[in-house]
Amino acid sequence: MSWSKHWVRSKKPSKQRKYVANAPLHVRHDLVAAHLSKDLIKRYKCRSIPVRKGDKVIVMRGEFKGKQGTVDRVDLKRLRVYVSGVQKERQDGTKYKVGLHPSNLMIVELSTEQGRIKVKKVSTNG
Question: What is the domain extent for residue 37?
């Protein structure tokens, strides 16, 4: 069996990578979680939440540190988040978006979808 929901943890990095690589999409959704800003932590009483399209984030690490933008796309297959304003230029002059790992992001403002608020209320109570 390549992936098991009963897997707990392992010290071996290879087994940790295997777990992430073979995880189904409903598990990968939890793996694209990013930290919340301090005021959002106080409001929702949790430290991190999965990133969604429309959230406003700040890049905390890497080449684009300090840049702020909205999430354009979340790629669950590659565990990458694409943020507006975070792009590089190719040799021929065309620009392309750079995928960022969600652990390097901090959510500043949640998207105002109604379902998102319901999910947060349920998770803070339970």
Answer: 13-125
